[in-house]
Design brief:
alpha+beta, Herpes Virus-1, five-stranded mixed β-barrel, two-stranded antiparallel ribbon, 8 strands, binds zinc ion, Znf_RING/FYVE/PHD
C-alpha cells in the first residue's frame, strides 16, 4: 500500500511544463525566451543583453522605471539560476533552440569582412594608438559586442559629406577597456589593417559595412631597389624633421615621443612600414589629405608624398 500512495502522489504532481506556458518564460524586451536571465533589485527579470541595452540609454528599470544607477555601477549581473533550471527542466527543446539562435547571432557578429561594425569618428592608422571615449548608446552596444564575440575589433572611418562615412577605414583592435560607473567607457585601441568599403549597412543603430582589406602592391628587382632607396631617404628626412628643434613643434615630440624605428623588410606588412603611418598621424595634415595617403596601395606614392610634405615643413619660413 505504501507503494500505491507514492505512485498516486506522483500522478497527482502536475508536470512543470503544464503549469507554465512558454510565454511565462519570455523576456518582455525581446519577446523571446529568456537568454541568460538576470533580475534587477526591483524584482524584474530580463535577458542580460536586453537589460544592458536599456541601461545604455538610461539607468532605470524598463518596466517599473525604478532607478538602477547603483545596480549599473556595481556592474555585476548575476544570472537568475532558478529560472535557468526551470527552463531547462520544463522546456529543454525551446532552450536549446534559443541557445542556437544566440550562437548564430554571435557568429554573424564575429564576421570580419561582412557587416562589420563601423565607428564613425576619427582618422586612425595601422599600428597607431587610438584612445576613445565611448558614451553614445549605439557605440556602447558595439563595443560590448566586440568584447562578447571575442573579436575585439571594429572598423573606424571618418565622416564624409554625402555618405554616412568615408570609403576607406582602419580596423581598430581593443587593447584595454575601462568601464566607468555610469556605463561610459575609456577604450584603448590600436590600428590594424586598412580596408575599403564595398557596401554600407546598419545594425541596431550603428553603421556597418562589407569590406575588403587593402594590400600594398609588391614590387621586386630594380623597382624594389629604387623603392628601398626612396624609403631610406624619406626616413632620413623624417629624422631630420623630427630632431630639428626649430621646425618640429615641441609639443608634437613631447606628446608622441621619438620617431619609430624603421623596419628591415619594407614590404613585410600589407600596410607597408609602420613609421610612415605614425608620421602621417602626427603631422599637421588635413584629414582629407591623410585619407588620400591612406587609400593608396602604392608605397612609392606614399613615400613621395611624405617627402613633399617634409620638405615643405623643413623649409625656413
Ligand atoms: Zn530579452
Ligand atoms: Zn523594475
Amino acid at each position: 500500500p505504501a507503494d500505491e500512495v507514492e505512485q498516486a502522489a506522483e500522478c497527482n504532481q502536475p508536470f512543470l511544463g503544464e503549469l507554465l506556458g512558454a510565454a511565462d518564460l519570455e523576456c518582455s524586451l525581446c519577446i523571446r525566451m529568456f537568454f541568460e536571465p538576470v533580475t534587477t533589485p526591483c524584482g524584474h527579470t530580463f535577458c542580460k543583453e536586453c537589460l544592458e541595452r536599456c541601461l545604455d540609454h538610461r539607468p532605470s528599470c524598463p518596466l517599473c522605471k525604478q532607478s538602477l544607477r547603483e545596480y549599473l555601477k556595481a556592474g555585476s549581473y548575476s544570472p537568475t539560476v532558478l529560472l535557468q533550471d526551470i527552463m531547462l527542466a520544463a522546456f529543454p527543446a525551446q532552450l536549446a533552440e534559443r541557445r542556437e539562435l544566440h550562437r548564430a547571432e554571435m557568429a554573424e557578429l564575429s564576421n570580419l569582412t561582412k557587416n562589420i561594425p563601423i565607428f564613425v569618428c576619427t582618422m586612425s592608422f595601422p599600428g597607431v594608438a587610438c584612445p576613445l571615449h565611448i558614451f553614445e548608446p549605439r557605440y556602447r552596444l558595439m563595443i560590448r559586442r566586440c568584447q562578447e564575440t571575442g573579436t575585439r575589433r571594429f572598423g573606424m572611418c571618418i565622416y564624409e559629406n554625402g555618405k554616412s562615412f568615408a570609403d576607406y577605414g582602419c580596423m581598430l583592435e581593443i587593447r584595454q577597456l575601462e568601464l566607468l560607473a555610469d556605463g561610459r567607457s575609456l577604450v584603448d585601441t590600436v590600428g590594424g589593417r586598412r580596408f575599403r568599403v564595398l557596401r554600407r549597412g546598419h545594425r541596431d543603430g550603428y553603421n556597418t559595412a562589407d569590406i575588403e582589406y587593402l594590400e600594398d602592391k609588391k614590387v621586386d628587382g630594380e623597382e624594389l631597389q629604387e623603392l628601398q632607396s626612396l624609403h631610406e631617404s624619406t626616413y632620413q628626412l623624417a629624422q631630420r624633421f623630427w630632431e630639428h628643434e626649430e621646425v618640429a613643434p615641441r609639443h608634437l615630440s613631447l606628446q608622441h615621443g621619438p620617431l619609430p624605428e624603421k623596419e628591415e623588410d619594407i614590404q613585410a606588412s600589407a600596410d607597408g612600414p609602420m613609421w610612415c603611418w605614425w608620421l602621417i598621424s602626427v603631422l599637421p595634415l588635413d584629414p582629407s589629405f591623410q585619407l588620400r595617403l591612406f587609400s593608396s596601395t602604392s608605397l612609392r606614392a606614399r613615400l613621395t608624398q611624405l617627402q613633399r610634405v617634409l620638405l615643405a615643413l623643413l623649409q625656413p619660413p
